[in-house]
Write a structure and sequence with these properties.
globular; about 220 residues
Length: about 220
């Protein structure tokens, strides 16, 4: 099994201190930084864009794990690639041609992620699984932090792990949404190797980020 990695979501960070918050996360042992990009159209919330990612890039050498919740996504891929994203994750519903968007991301030498909402079937992306570096399983409906974990996604994680093993695919399985110290063990045991967490990392144990990251990795 791949080493468990934690990708803290800066959606729960202090937005007036984002550079310092990213440094805090790195010092506390974060493996990468999860950046949620929302357009107020594909999801009912607005967050940040390429200029902010570019400004934050100088604060860390950690992987920027950028989740694009924007539609249409294809025309913005280049901007996010040039801003310093390392992994660019898109939703199949947000592009007219998933295969073309995957190739477009790879043309900038970036890793490709594809995100599955709780109601999105694996079959929608099955023909592209061999070309994907990361599958982001949403365990809430995207748009806002602090939502409750949807346990039904556990079966989806298990299915993705089974397909990966049977076909010898190389993608990481990442889970995002309502991750806490209890369900983190469930998603790891189901096959996930990257956990996204915001509220738990920043709020639990009186904000002891290091302890929270270490606890999330435990099975």
């Amino acid at each position: 099994m791949k080493k468990i990695q934690i990708s803290p979501s800066i959606l729960s960070a202090d937005f007036s201190q984002l550079g310092n918050e990213i440094k805090r996360l790195e010092d506390a042992g974060a493996d990468m930084i999860h950046v949620d990009v929302m357009d107020g159209h594909f999801v009912p919330n607005l967050t940040i864009g390429p200029p902010v990612i570019k400004a934050l890039r100088k604060y860390t050498n950690l992987i920027f794990d950028v989740h694009l919740m924007i539609s249409p996504v294809h025309k913005y891929i280049e901007d996010f690639a040039n801003a310093g994203s390392d992994i660019i994750t898109i939703h199949p519903e947000a592009t007219d041609n998933l295969s073309d968007s995957i190739k477009h991301i790879k043309s900038f030498k970036k890793k490709v992620g594809v995100s599955l909402n709780p109601n999105t079937e694996i079959s929608i992306i099955e023909t592209e699984l061999k070309n994907i570096d990361l599958i982001l399983v949403m365990s809430v409906y995207p748009g806002f932090g602090g939502q409750k974990f949807i346990p039904e996604v556990i079966e989806k994680i298990k299915s993705l792990k089974k397909i990966k093993e049977e076909k010898s695919y190389q993608y990481d399985i990442e889970v995002d949404g309502g991750i806490n110290f209890t369900n983190s063990k469930d998603v790891i045991n189901a096959g996930a190797n990257i956990l996204v967490s915001g509220t738990t990392i920043f709020k639990e144990n009186n904000g002891n980020i290091k302890k929270n990251i270490e606890t999330l990795k435990e099975v």
